[in-house]
Q: What sequence folds into this?
């Protein structure tokens, strides 16, 4: 029984890790499925995947609670979007899922600014023993930057839906937005290492 529990736990962890690339590739999955008229398959896959992710993410440390809630809310809204597209037979509604994701995470980050600790401060708490006032100021600014990103990215995602250009939608939501997010994360990491090194020298 113990071995079975361990196997189920490791399987759950493996599937959660695999869900990351699947999530990143989702714009390509949506694009291709709609192109080959596999709408029912796509809707079924969306409902199954996001339902499973909502249930499987499980418990997290207190510091990650706000992102856990945001992920669950986003998944539930995407499921509702998929069901709506099926009932209304308007499968182009599935293009709105990046807009939903950005809106939910914008809400989570904004909420953390109003009711600290901020999301980025929570991340810092996972790796830092103590959070100094200078670090709190820094993480607040980084959270603000992510709010700007989610606002801009959500607006662009909405624009690509309204444009009716599937290739533009895929280019932005499956490529450019990831590059911008990656640049923010990479730049933030380098700045954080510089600040930490400077603080250690003092």
A:
């Amino acid at each position: 029984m113990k071995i079975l529990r361990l196997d189920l736990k490791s399987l759950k962890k493996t599937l959660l890790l695999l869900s990351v690339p699947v999530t990143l590739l989702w714009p390509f999955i949506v694009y291709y499925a709609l192109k080959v008229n596999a709408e029912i398959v796509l809707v079924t896959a969306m409902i199954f995947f996001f339902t499973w992710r909502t249930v499987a993410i499980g418990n997290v440390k207190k510091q990650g609670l706000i992102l856990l809630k945001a992920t669950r809310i986003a998944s539930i809204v995407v499921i509702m979007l998929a069901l709506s597209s099926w009932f209304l037979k308007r499968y182009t509604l599935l293009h709105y899922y990046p807009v939903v994701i950005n809106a939910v995470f914008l809400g989570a980050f904004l909420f953390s600014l109003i009711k600290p600790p901020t999301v980025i401060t929570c991340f810092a708490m996972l790796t830092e023993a103590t959070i100094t006032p200078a670090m709190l100021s820094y993480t607040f600014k980084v959270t603000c930057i992510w709010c700007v990103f989610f606002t801009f990215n959500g607006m662009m995602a909405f624009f690509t839906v309204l444009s009716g250009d599937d290739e533009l939608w895929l280019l932005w939501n499956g490529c450019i937005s990831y590059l911008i997010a990656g640049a923010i994360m990479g730049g933030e990491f380098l700045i954080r290492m510089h600040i930490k090194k400077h603080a250690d020298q003092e």
User: Anything to note?
Assistant: Helices lie at 2-35, 39-56, 65-88, 97-114, 119-127, 133-163, 166-201.
